[in-house]
Amino acid sequence: MLIGVPKEIKNFEYRVGLVPSSVRELVTHGHRVMVQKGAGEKIGFDDQSYRNVGASIVETADEIFQQADMIIKVKEPQANECKMLREGQVLFTYLHLAPDPEQARLLQASGCVAIAYETVTNQFGGLPLLAPMSEVAGRMAIQAGATSLEIKNGGRGILLGGVPGVTPAKVVVLGGGVVGTNSVRVAMGMGANVVVIDKSLERLYHLDLQFGSQINTVFSTIDAIEHHVKDADLVVGAVLIPGASAPRLVTKEMLTLMQPGSVIVDVSIDQGGCFETSKATTHENPTYVVNGVVHYCVANMPGAVPRTSTFALNNATLPFILALANDGYKLAMSRNPHLLNGLNVAKGKITYKAVAEALNQAYTPAQDMIGG
After folding, report:
1. 82-102, pLDDT tens digit by residue?
2. 47: part of which helix (H) or strand (E)?
3. 69, 198, 233, 270: which is the annotated catalytic residue?
């Protein structure tokens, strides 16, 4: 199979779909890989490092989209990339379609087979291709929040951990999954007072076992969210419904109860955000202020540490990429129902139920698109 890796074009996005070691694995298995010039340059992989493991270097993304059987990316294709996709061509990347009807429309129009990292599952009920970036984003959320709390950035001028004789900041984490757990770990390590809110008693139980009395675990209700958000210095939105739009847990009214200069970091923004006042921002202009509250809503947070993020992502995606390349998408998915769960769009059809519901479109079961 001919596999193409275009250079990412989203704002301040320097991750790359395949690192040289992953390319070497694919070449060893008999596949050809073409990489756009400069795709990995910002994270220390020059074009020669790709040539050394058997990849060919091409000048433009056009060449890759025109020739490759499968496109491997990191972030969702931008509009001009969607328009270059071909019928039957496989696209394997993050998509986050629920809050993005225009991308969905363009993918459908292309006739491509779009497989989303974020909905591939595993035998434990987890999301193995989302988890690495969730780990990065969860840890980064506290860094970003701590920086945003500095007075020069519009924050209250609070140090998360305080100092002897001065109360630490209160950090509230909405959601106790992978993002939330990593946010809790970093916030706790920095000495903050941490509250994690989740609707799963089992999840709260595991967090209590893991962190003990160093955090407070709270069952999620509207009252509980309002009570803890109003006096929080930093609130991290870490909720996820696979493939679907994130629920809006914090309303505009709740926001008015918060102290001026407090900060929210909405990691759920890729799925539309869990704060009513959230809108996607970029690494170039990461924050804005509503009712005196600083909002950090960068839609590709792990892109700020692209080398770490790229390695973490490749470690998780490579086995699935090999399966798709070795067997083709139909056979690979028929053999692996967890990979089949990643199919979001195929030949004009929406094949993931939560995405179809979010976009108010007809749903076609993924199984129907692979036969047998």
Report:
1. 999 999 999 999 999 999 999
2. helix 47-51
3. 270
Contacts of 330 (CB under 8 A, 6+ apart): 370, 371
SS3 state at 125: coil
Q: Are 159 and 148 in contact (CB under 8 A)?
A: no
**Kind of pairing, strands 263-266 and 287-290?**
unpaired
Nearest Cα residue to 117 out of 87, 91, 137, 141: 91
Q: Which of 96, 228, 295, 338 is catalytic?
A: 96
Question: Among residues 4, 2, 183, 149, which one has the least CA distance to residue 77?
Answer: 4
14-33, pLDDT tens digit by residue? Answer: 999 999 999 999 999 999 99
Q: In which element (H, E) is residue 46 found?
A: none
Residue pair 110/83 in contact by the 8 Å Cβ criterion = yes
What token pair was written down for 266? 């909405």
Q: At 99, list the tokens.
A: 């809050």
Look-up of token digits 């001028």 = 157
Annotated catalytic residue 96: yes
> Can you read off the two tokens belonging to residue 108?
């459908």
Give alpha helix (H) positions in 152-266. Answer: 178-189, 201-211, 222-229, 252-255
Q: List the structure tokens of 370.
A: 């692979």
- 231 part of the active site: no
Separation CA 235–CA 174 (nearest Å): 7
Output DSSP code: residue 245: P
What is the rounded CA–CA span in Å between residue 79 and residue 293?
32
Global pTM exceeds 0.85: yes
The Cα-based distances of 19 to 5, 119, 130 in angstroms read: 10, 22, 18
